[in-house]
Amino acid sequence: MKRLIALLLVTASVAALSACNTVAGAGEDLSSGGHAITNSAEQAK
Which InterPro entries match (predicted)? Predict the structure, then answer.
């Protein structure tokens, strides 16, 4: 029983860390897209 609980905790920890990396990557992508739009707008002035 203790082994099952430990396995579930490790699995949940790995899933949580993976989700954080995915969200961080998506945030960086959105940020770089925003910078590109801002630069295009500045050049169009």
Answer: Entericidin
Determine the Cα angle at 36 with ends 25 and 28, to 5°. 10
Rounded Cα distance, 30 and 41, in Å: 17
Q: Is the pTM of this model over 0.70?
A: no
Cα angle 25, 17, 7; round to 5: 155
DSSP-based three-state secondary structure for 15: helix
Identify the H or E element spanning 12.
Answer: helix 2-44
Structure tokens at 40: 């295009």
